[in-house]
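Structure first, sequence second, as always.
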């Protein structure tokens, strides 16, 4: 009975449970056994079938071929696993190093702050000691005078109680050689209260700000002090290489060409200097000076800046950019610099082929001819640029609050690299921040 039951089970295993037909086919599409009725059914419509023996032989051949390559693949996977373990270890070690560095850097600042706190407190203590010493000395003199006046009042009261004239005068003359006018002269008028008010100057009202300014002098590393250069005749660069103006590079698309005088006063509203250049410095430029300028009303104006065609009221204009570079070049390490963009309506800054662009409405990351529009919606007064030469990553920040704008990386960038700017004609200056 057991043998009969086993045979029945084996036969049932090779029977189609749905059609009660023997499973003679293999559906290559579904990778499952099927009977003849299954093959013609809707569920397997359009599927590829093979006889069981042929399917088994084909599968065996593929498995034998695949198992030959499996050890190589396993070793490759093991290498990936080992590399990933190494990266995990490196990341943990790097994190530990950074933790140590962070603790050390903050401890240096803490030490500076604690030292300055002790110094300012000691200065306050010395001021307190000097003030208290002066006031205590004066208080002692006042108390002495008060004691003498109280003693005099007691003696005079006793003397006034004597009714005998001779005895009264005798008591007055004993130990007294002054007149009543001198003796009873008000002594309070000779005294004054010493008021030595403590004052720490700016440390009393602006302590955090002044200490912060002191701390900036000892912080290392500092921001990069960039010097700018340009070969464009449209770019005016200050003698110290810190500031620039793009005086003209726009063309009207229709009608006659007119010039408008760009406002070259600094962003704080100072008037244009008649001599000595802009921002209190002389400027070097390939531009021709003292050329006539026509304003938007057609009036002829004399100014000290070369002017080319620019925006005309009611006309569209096509902008072109001029390039500016930093004299500084970076080969290795990590570097940070800040640029004052103020109210400029167009700028591109970063390094060559990796720039953050602002066109007056939106920000765009420009990297290797690929432009990515960003969601950042603020308008920072200063842009911070952070360059990591080892990883070739470039990050941009709102330098006023250090909020992150965007980070881009480039495997194709080569060293040395320098700061790079593309600018258009704009009355507002672009300046490197020097602290």
């Amino acid at each position: 009975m057991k043998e009969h039951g086993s045979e029945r089970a084996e036969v049932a295993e090779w029977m189609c449970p749905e059609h009660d037909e023997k499973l003679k086919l293999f559906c290559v599409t579904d990778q499952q056994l099927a009977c003849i009725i299954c093959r013609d059914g809707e569920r397997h419509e359009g599927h590829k079938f093979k006889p069981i023996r042929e399917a088994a032989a084909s599968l065996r051949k593929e498995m034998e071929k695949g198992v030959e390559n499996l050890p190589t693949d396993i070793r490759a996977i093991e290498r990936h696993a080992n590399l990933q373990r190494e990266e995990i270890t490196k990341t943990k070690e790097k994190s530990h190093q950074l933790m140590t560095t962070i603790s050390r850097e903050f401890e240096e600042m803490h030490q500076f702050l604690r030292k300055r706190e002790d110094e300012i407190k000691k200065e306050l203590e010395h001021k307190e000691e000097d003030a208290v010493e002066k006031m205590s000395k004066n208080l002692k003199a006042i108390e002495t005078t008060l004691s003498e006046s109280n003693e005099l009042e007691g003696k005079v009261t006793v003397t006034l109680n004597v009714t005998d004239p001779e005895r009264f005068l005798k008591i007055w003359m004993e130990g007294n050689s002054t007149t009543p006018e001198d003796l009873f002269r008000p002594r309070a008028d000779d005294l004054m209260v010493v008021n030595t008010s403590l004052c720490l100057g700016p440390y009393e009202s602006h302590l955090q700000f002044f200490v912060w300014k002191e701390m900036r002098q000892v912080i290392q590393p500092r921001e990069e002090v960039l010097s700018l250069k340009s070969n464009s005749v449209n770019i005016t660069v200050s003698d110290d290489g810190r500031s620039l103006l793009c005086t003209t590079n726009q063309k009207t698309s229709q009608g006659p060409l007119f010039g408008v005088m760009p406002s070259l006063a600094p962003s704080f509203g100072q008037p244009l200097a008649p001599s000595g250049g802009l921002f209190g410095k002389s400027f070097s430029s390939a531009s021709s000076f003292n050329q006539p300028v026509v304003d938007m009303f057609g009036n002829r104006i004399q100014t000290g800046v070369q002017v080319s065609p620019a925006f005309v009221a009611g006309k569209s204009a096509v902008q072109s950019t001029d390039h500016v570079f930093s004299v500084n070049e970076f080969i290795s390490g990590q570097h940070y610099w800040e640029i004052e963009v103020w109210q400029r309506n167009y700028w591109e800054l970063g390094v060559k082929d990796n720039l953050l662009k602002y066109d007056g409405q939106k920000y765009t990351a420009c990297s290797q001819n690929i432009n990515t529009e960003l969601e950042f919606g603020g308008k920072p007064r200063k842009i911070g640029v952070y360059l990591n030469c080892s990883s070739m990553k470039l990050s941009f920040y709102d330098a006023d609050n250090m909020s992150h704008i965007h980070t881009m990386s480039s495997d194709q960038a080569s060293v040395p690299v320098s700061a790079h700017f593309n600018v258009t004609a704009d009355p507002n200056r672009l300046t490197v921040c020097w602290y």
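Margin note: The chain is about 35% helix and 20% strand.
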